[in-house]
Design a protein that fits this description.
529 residues, four-stranded parallel sheet, two-stranded antiparallel ribbon, 63% helix
């Protein structure tokens, strides 16, 4: 049994010989287990404990084992990343304060390259290679760099405590990284193995050259696809009312998650993003059509801060515009630049998702028309049909078009269902806690997990409020919302959200494609706040 090392404890140093011994065992373990990065922190620590158990290593070495394992699984990936897309992080404690001529500002230390310490030597080598470089202790500046999209990999040199603070930030954004622990302890005049550092810094492989999909760049390209000029070129000029309504609606706001997923997955799997444009626009056509019909069915007055389409043009015209967008979505897929076999698969995936969405919406409408007690399972099934299925279409269109293998596509489907369900639960949570319009979905008598948790409660006050709800009492709905909060039933929804988020992470573990796995990790982080 290993004693846990707390993050606030100072981690004892280990000698160079022991490091080399551990690294040799760890490289062999990573190859034998066919580990594909990125690994979640929990997964990394599980492997570290397993290695420690096999080697009979003390618990104090587990942080080193985890670090060296992380180094090993990212080594080939980082070797394929251009030097100019790598960030080198150096600690200020490498400087010799007695003779140091460097200036210090709020970003860190500005090395004078006097050669009195390792910083100057490492910085000179990093600059020669083309690295971005930073001498800083905190994680704030590092976090900003990692989220800026300007770097694709990080080499960090520092004490184990510092590396442990930085690497969770990298893990959150699925940034490849390797860490080089210091040879001496303390916060001043420390030292590092220069030969080891140079070897990691200089590692490069043209054969493994890898470009990562940058979500921000893809999102920018996606926005360009939905300008009037591009939509006219792609969908044809709007000569009828249905076309004018539909194209104007396609240009309206929103996060455009679905075409972003399609294009990003396609590129990460090796495709040229411009080739997926038509299919991605088709995916957005389906989504925008569903919003028009959903707003009609829910009798909503506003979307994107403006009147809904049926409020502007009337219900018949809105239905017709939505129908035109559905047909246009299929036409765009059939116009895409893929083989007939691939296009047939894309249409099949879209049709399956379209049917699932309609069935889920149908169940929701049936409930709203005649509210009755609901179970968590029935509500989650509606979520899977209404929200998760749309994400699954977006992901699979990109994957199938790029020629991703069937096993990985099945994993991607499972990921889509889990992340889509978690995303809908998150939306429920935000709706329930909203300052303005609190619990609007429950007030409108839509099936939600909050209502389902109330239905399973035996508390007499909850049951009393529910009885009023079934009698269609608006006051009863308000009372139920207050009592769900008062008696802590919202905690069950929080637990379900945590479950689906964890399920999303678990599914990611089994994806054997580094670029896709890294992209999906970043997508998950952005979608699930």
């Amino acid at each position: 049994m290993h004693r846990q090392v707390n993050s606030h404890e100072r981690i004892p140093l280990i000698g160079s010989a022991r490091r080399a011994e551990l690294e040799a065992h760890i490289r062999h373990y990573a190859q034998r287990e066919s580990l594909v990065p990125p690994l979640m922190r929990e997964e990394l620590m599980q492997h570290a404990h397993c290695i420690a158990g096999k080697l009979g290593a003390p618990s104090t070495e587990i942080p080193y084992i985890a670090l060296f394992l992380n180094n090993a699984i990212w080594a080939d990936v980082i070797a394929g990343i251009p030097f100019e897309r790598r960030l080198l992080l150096l600690p200020q404690c490498l400087s010799k304060r007695v003779v140091c001529k460097a200036a210090r500002d709020n970003l860190g230390l500005l090395c004078a390259q006097c050669g009195a310490c390792a910083i100057g030597h490492l910085q000179a080598e990093a600059e020669r290679l083309g690295y971005v470089m930073l001498v800083a202790e905190g994680t704030t500046v590092v976090s900003k760099l990692l989220t800026s999209g300007k770097v694709d990999a990080v080499i960090g040199i520092g004490c184990m405590e510092s590396l442990q603070r930085i690497f969770p930030v990298m893990n959150e954004h699925a940034i490849p990284g390797q860490g080089i622990p210091l040879l001496s302890d303390g916060c001043i005049e420390t030292d590092v193995d220069l030969d080891d550092a140079y070897a990691i810094l200089r590692a490069s492989s043209e054969a493994r050259r890898m470009e990562f999909t940058d979500l921000e760049r893809v999102a920018g390209r996606i926005q360009q696809w939905f300008t009037l000029e591009n939509l006219d070129a792609q969908m044809g000029p709007a000569t009828t009312e249905a076309q004018r309504i539909g194209i104007a609606w396609m240009m309206m706001g929103g996060k455009r998650w679905r075409p972003l997923l399609t294009a990003a997955i396609f590129e990460a799997a090796g495709g040229d993003m411009m080739q997926i444009r038509e299919a991605a626009i088709g995916v957005e056509c389906f989504h925008k059509a569903s919003l028009i019909h959903d707003d009609i069915e829910d009798n909503d007055d506003e979307r994107y801060g403006a009147p809904t389409i049926h409020r502007q043009y009337g219900v018949p015209a809105a239905i017709n515009a939505g129908d035109w967008l559905i047909g246009e979505g299929y036409r765009q897929i059939l116009l895409s630049r893929f083989s007939a076999e691939i296009r047939a698969q894309l249409v099949a995936v879209a049709a399956k998702g379209h049917c699932a969405l309609s069935l889920g919406q149908g169940e929701e409408l049936a409930f709203s028309r005649s509210p009755t007690p609901v179970t968590e399972a029935s509500v989650l099934h509606i979520y899977e049909q209404k929200t998760a299925a749309a994400f699954e279409v977006a992901v699979l269109v990109g994957a199938i078009a790029a020629g991703v293998d069937e096993t990985t596509c099945k994993r991607l489907s499972a990921f889509s269902r889990a992340v889509g369900t978690a995303y809908q639960i998150q939306d429920d949570m935000e709706d329930f806690r909203s300052v303005s319009g609190r619990a609007a979905d429950l007030l409108s008598m839509r099936p939600t997990l909050y209502l389902a948790t109330a239905c399973t409660s035996d508390h007499p006050d909850i049951q009393q409020a529910l009885n009023a709800v079934w009698k269609n009492s608006p006051h009863g709905r308000e009372t139920l919302i207050d009592r769900i909060e008062k008696f802590g039933l919202h905690a069950r929804v929080d637990l379900l959200y945590a479950h689906y988020r964890h399920e999303t992470e678990r599914i990611l573990e089994g994806i054997q494609h580094t670029a896709l796995k890294r992209l999906l990790r970043r997508i998950m982080t952005k979608m699930l706040r």
